Amino acid sequence: MKLIIAIIQPHKLEEVKEELYKAEVNLITVSEVLGHGRQKGVTEIYRGAKETGNLLRKIRLEIAVNENFVEPTINAIVKGAKTGETGDGKIFILDLKECIRIRTEERGGVAIG
Amino acid sequence: MINSGDTAWVLISSALVMLMTPGLAFFYGGMVRKKNVLSILMQCFIVLCLISVQWVLYGYSLSFAPSNGFWGGFGWFGLKGVGLEPYADYAGTIPHQAFMIFQAMFAIITPALILGAFAERMKFSAFIAFILLWATFVYAPIAHWVWGVGGFLRKMGALDFAGGTVVHINAGIAALATALAIGKRKNIEKNIPAPHNMPFVVLGTALLWFGWFGFNAGSALAANGLAVNAFVVTNTAAAAAGLSWAIIEWIRNGKPTIFGAASGAVAGLVAITPAAGFVSVIPAILIGLLVSVFCFTAVSIVKPKFGYDDSLDAFGVHCIGGMWGALATGLFASKAVNPGGADGLFFGNPKQFLVQLTAVCVTLIYSLVVSMIIYKLVDMFIGVRVNEKEEAMGLDLTQHHERAYTVLE
């Protein structure tokens, strides 16, 4: 089992969801986060006070998958989120030790569903 | 003889100026961090309540009862002798209490302006003590000298139509004094926090601009041509200043910002305040265009250079803007606009400029010194600044046990 964490551009969320549904990945958790990459954000100025290295809005996806769904999920996210510009984001793959479905108390790959 | 049009206009103007204090609360509130927004709203709201009562008890008496000296004394305590017939020395066609309640709104918003200097770090108990002492020992005397019967600046012929000295320079220099005394916010050199809610700042600006029509045009104390002149130049100066600040930012920083345009408009309103009943529309445009140059410099260049933490630019906008407005009145005042006023330097009377300069200096020195004394006294007995942990947690939670925005429902 793997936990896939993806940081993407907020305006790409709908397209990524579409691609995930097409790949039959219907489980997803979404949160709003702040962050930046190597460009260190854009400059904001308030009455002469400059802010550099500021954090930009991003969307974070967390998806738990069985082994056979790892590649399709990655492909779906890339297809939906990629623009070719800086700021497209990153995907991290973590080993997932256990997964429990709360309603039925099933464990393991079956619980990921 | 009571004139119903004049009375109606003064009552409406009083309501307009009242709205400026909540407007200021949102103007300032949007600029601070989320964790401190309620403290700004609470400070403004409590000033509204506190000074409203103080005014009718003894504030009006100290400021406006006739005298020949420092202030008006307590002869009109509890509005004794202040009835519903006109008091001709102030306004001959409206009930005396109408003049009183109009002035009350000025007495309320002036101390509220100061809180921009010490935002995000003052104890609420110390704040109340400071405001009460300041209204009594700084606002009342200065109001008396400029507007009161027997006031020496009034006798000298100083022109201050709606409060450039009494309100803006006064509060602005008190702001500098308290900002220096209370010290910088923790870690402010590393990063100056961005306004947490810019729409509030703009909403506040709009309410201030709207209310300012009462502030300036209402100071004609009559529904007449002079009120119209004040109304017109008020709008024009604000507009010119808003444009000016936006253009300065466009050139200097690459982009015009809403924060800048709003700040410019407020600076323009400040500057036209003493001049509104004495200058015509072309000088009003000049006053507006130039005030943004002065205030932008004070806020974006001088402040970072000297490093004082006048958090919300009460000094940079109100003191500097008010000084320019008071001096500009000495330049551009014309008896053609207001025969009851005087001519300024550009209309053949350089002496007026010197009179204005005197009024400005007297206000600056008195307010700076006494505000500092009051601060030190309050600090000695109550302690003014919150401790480091309280400052980090935020004033809303530590001073008021309240949270402005729910995070999880």
Summary, kept brief:
Chain A has 113 residues and is an alpha+beta fold. Chain A is built from three helices and six strands, in the order E-H-E-E-E-E-H-E-H. The longest helix of chain B is centred in the C-terminal third of the chain and has 32 residues.
Task: Explain the overall architecture.
The complex is a heterodimer of chains A (113) and B (409). Chain A has 3 helices and 6 strands, in the order βαββββαβα. Chain A has 113 residues and is α+β, with helices and mostly antiparallel strands. Chain A has a single domain, classed as Alpha-Beta Plaits (2-Layer Sandwich). In chain A, strands 2-5-1-6 form a 4-stranded antiparallel sheet, covered by helices on one side. In chain A, strands 3-4 form a two-stranded antiparallel ribbon. The mean pLDDT of chain A is 92. Chain B is mainly alpha-helical. Chain B has one domain (4-400): Ammonium transporter fold (Orthogonal Bundle), CATH 1.10.3430.10. The longest helix of chain B has 32 residues, at 350-381. At the A-B interface, strand 3 of A face helix 9 and helix 10 of B.
Chart the SSEs and their pairings.
The complex is a heterodimer of chains A (113) and B (409).
Chain A: E1 2-8, H1 13-22, E2 29-35, E3 44-46, E4 49-51, E5 56-65, H2 70-81, E6 89-95, H3 109-112
Antiparallel strand pairs in A: 1-5, 1-6, 2-5, 3-4
Chain B: H1 4-29, H2 37-64, H3 96-114, H4 124-147, H5 152-156, H6 164-182, H7 198-217, H8 225-253, H9 258-272, H10 281-306, H11 314-332, H12 350-381, H13 388-393, H14 395-400
Helix pairs in contact in B: 1-2, 1-3, 1-7, 2-3, 2-4, 3-4, 3-6, 4-6, 4-12, 6-11, 6-12, 7-8, 7-9, 8-9, 8-10, 9-10, 9-11, 10-11, 11-12
